[in-house]
Amino acid sequence: MDRKTYMTVETTNLNGCSCFSLQSDADVENGAIVGKGDLVAGEKSVYTALDTYTEDAMYLVAHPAWSYKNGMTDQNEENFINKAGIAFKVYELKKDRKYKVGNLPSTVTLAKGDFVEFKDGAYAKAASDTKLKVVDVEEIGFPYCIGSAGVVITGDSTNEYGYAIDTRNVKYTIEVQ
């Protein structure tokens, strides 16, 4: 399933990590890793988000997934993006802390034990130790049959069972080494 929405992030195991407010000139997905620059002009506690980061200064974008529009009823995380020019929350990533990312593109295939990096707006398997290691992989959801919308079920060439929508999602638990 190719992703048509945004990354999601869970921060349950980031206790003790400092939080900061950052702002970017471009839209930034939750789950992204950024660097922290100087204060934004005219601000006292909002810093510039940098596209690049170092292993000693990594910040996980994890802003609460609330819509910027009044009256929105769809507040699902996968529909949320941090808009350019608006401050968002980040966690400073510290050793032994864990977080989960999900809703990655189907081209991203990571396994337990892989080191990962975040570049060009996506997670990828790293060739060497990056201080970010996948420690668990879990698949949630399932494909379910529906009426005439969706896709033909794999292996059902005669379309005997109708169509299905695949709601599966893989979540990767990443630990800071």
Task: Give an overview in words.
It is a single chain. This protein is an all-beta fold. The protein has one domain. Helix content is 0%, strand content 38%. It has no helices and 14 strands. The strands form four sheets. The chain has a five-stranded mixed beta barrel. 22% of the residues are buried. The mean pLDDT is 87.
Poorly predicted ranges (pLDDT <50, ≥5 residues)? none
N-to-C span: 31 Å
**Domain module tally:** 1
Radius of gyration: 18 Å
- Tally the helices: 0
Topology of this protein?
Layout: E1 8-10, E2 19-23, E3 33-39, E4 46-50, E5 59-61, E6 88-92, E7 98-102, E8 116-119, E9 122-125, E10 132-140, E11 143-146, E12 151-152, E13 163-166, E14 169-176
Parallel strand pairs: 2-4
Antiparallel strand pairs: 1-7, 2-6, 3-4, 3-5, 5-6, 7-14, 8-9, 10-14, 11-13, 12-13
What are its keywords?
0% helix, 177 residues, globular, mainly beta, 38% strand, 14 strands, four-stranded antiparallel sheet, five-stranded mixed β-barrel
Summarize the structure in short.
By secondary structure, the chain is mainly beta. The chain is built from no helices and 14 strands. The strands form 4 sheets. Strands 2-4-3-5-6 form a 5-stranded mixed barrel. A 4-stranded antiparallel sheet has the order 1-7-14-10, with no helix packed on it.
